[in-house]
Amino acid sequence: MIIAAFVFAEIFCMCTAAFFLFRMNGNTFSEAASYGIIIVFMLLSFIRQISFITGYPIISTCIEAVCLIASIILIFRQRSNVPAIFGAIKNFGSANFLPFIFLISCFLYMAIHAFLSVPKEFPVDFFSFAATSDFPSFFLPLNHSILFNTFLRFGIDSGAGIFSFLAYLSIGFSTYALARRYSWHPTAFTVSILVMSMPRLVVQAIYPGTQIISVAVALFCILAIYRTVELPNLTDLILLILGLCFYISGNISSIIFAPILFVLSCVVLFRRHGIITWKSILGKNYTAFLAVVPAVIFSHFWLKDSWSGVFSSISFNKDGIQGAAANFIRYVFESFYFTASIDIFFERVFNWNLAQALESLYDFCVRSFLGESGAAQAFHLAGLPNEMFSFGPVGFFLVLPSLFYAMVKGPRRLKAVAIAFFVYFYLVSLIIAWAPGNAKFFELFYVCAGFSIAFFFPPWRFTKRNKKIFQAAGCFLLFFTLLTAG
Nearest 5°: CA angle at 371, between 370 and 375? Predict the structure, then answer.
């Protein structure tokens, strides 16, 4: 536990120093917090992968030591800004007293939970990974999973969950920063609470895993796109490029969404400023090409022969467009059945089973026409893996309508983002056969698109009273999930 606390202190110092750097660069509080967390993830992943490639662990140890010392020096030099930061937090908390205090309490519990030992069902044998300097093919790509080596190299399994918790915080900060583009801060704060209350996201925040890190990095890339197009600059452009490469992981969802993110970046950036602007920025700063090295390491394209392991456990849709249409409908039905606990409530109070009602509707409207097209097995709602921890009512009743509304009524940038998410939804339906547990592919869709709710809540409809109701509902769902999962 002492070693875990020391490693956590190291990560905290690095994140704090990165936060100060981005604040000095002109980023807002939420942008600097989100950037600071993900850039430290990139740094730790890069130096560890260099050590594994060269076979010399001492490299990462030395670079980490230098970065830690530099972080402490920077924090010391910025100590005069600490009271202003705490003052800003205090003012924000005063304006949102009850939900703010509640969230801080939940976050403290989640941070403590992150120090618990890794559960036995943890999917990757990180201990054997930490003890070797080889590149086993089944660990590729390493971008996110290698982060846990920061703790597990010492032979301890406590504390590894801190990366998932930090990714969770980064998602909250990124959501707030993006929502502020389309709303005032009370609405953006409400949207952040709603996104962070999604049961599946909360559960992944308190247990070690790479899925939530992938989502946090994807949202970081979207934030970098917005910042880069709003004010063309070298820093955000490099961070966007590195983020796109670092986003690639062992999750097949990242392999599907990475090209979409790349195309979205090109469309938004070139349509707004043209290629001449970006050539001029890069041409005046030749040091930017040093970022090629981490970009190449993160991309893993040079190890493409080992990528087959990522697809080994995936069942593919063999029924083409018809199977994609059937899968699309299945995922919509599945998103409406957002938690088993509500189903139990309806059954006990009203003697009505939501899962059976939805399945009957599905049998009548879909199965009679499309059968089991596109599915690896028969579609059923009851008994789905992790059904207690899906995306909650926020996913179906807020995110989906918000994306449709943004695609029709939104400004060009938000409209492009909405189209990108629906393209991802379609590609998952087209490529992957439906199977129980496929909800993991849509965490990216529902969480990263959550900020679009801010555009769906215009000031004249989203009153102060409505904000309090939505904030209370989000806080209750967060508390209920922690109570059930913890």
Answer: 100
Q: Which pLDDT tens digit goes with each residue over 278-307?
A: 888 877 777 778 888 999 999 877 665 555
pLDDT score recorded for residue 383 = 61
Q: How many residues does the chain have?
A: 486
Check: CB of residue 192 under 8 Å from CB of residue 176.
Answer: yes
CA distance 397 to 121: 33
C-alpha–C-alpha distance, residues 73 and 110, integer Å? 29
Residue 126 has pLDDT above 70, yes or no: no
For residues 269 and 342, membership in a common domain is answered with no
Residue range 396-416, pLDDT digits in tens: 999 999 999 999 999 999 999
Positive/negative CA dihedral, 206, 209, 213, 218:
negative
| Domain around 112 | 2-81+94-303
The Cα–Cα gap between 16 and 68 comes to 11
Inter-CA distances, 323 with 319, 434, 441, Å: 5, 9, 17
**What angle in degrees, to the nearest 10, is found between the helix axes of 82-95 and 97-113?**
120
How many domains are contained in the chain? Answer: 2
Instruction: Compute CA distances 146 → 8, 80, 130, 191, 256, whole Å.
Output: 16, 35, 9, 32, 21
Residue 133 pLDDT exceeds 70: no
Same domain, yes or no: 274 and 345: no
